[in-house]
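Sample intake sheet
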Amino acid sequence: MEKKYIGWTDEAVLPFETEAQLKNGEIWGSDLLRCRQTASILFPNAAYRPDPGFRECNFGEWEMKTYEELKSEPLYRKWIDDPYSVTPPDGESLHQVELRISQALSKLPAGNEFTIIMHGGPIRYLLARAKKETFREQQAFHGDCHSISWQSRQAFEEERICKSYSVVPLTAKGNM
């Protein structure tokens, strides 16, 4: 709500209204509190499998700061222009985030269908990979559910374009 960079800060999810999903089984996602809480609201009967590999970008010294607070810092301006190779102080570049998420995805067990609770940056990375577009072209709004399908697990692992993609709001007001 305050437009702060919130990466590895382990704070609670904002309150939201939605109906619980009836899916049982296992849900994977970030180990941070806001994802664990989201999973418990959306999938109360599922086992949650936390993995720090699904975390948001580590914004380092820029954590909990806003664009307005950072806009005059030269390194921040360079990072805005090239987040793949410029790293926030004590944080990680977008390239490092993508490597981490790819490793977490590769650890998913055998099977072809997964529900993953992730943060905006990781979602945008996965969408870019699925649609063969750039990270900047992707949008991940709070409260949206993105469904992505590949022809096969092998197609996913070979980073082929997905066969279908859809997005629907999960929350009553999109305030998750």
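Comment: Residues 84 and 95 are 5 Å apart (CA to CA). The mean pLDDT is 88.
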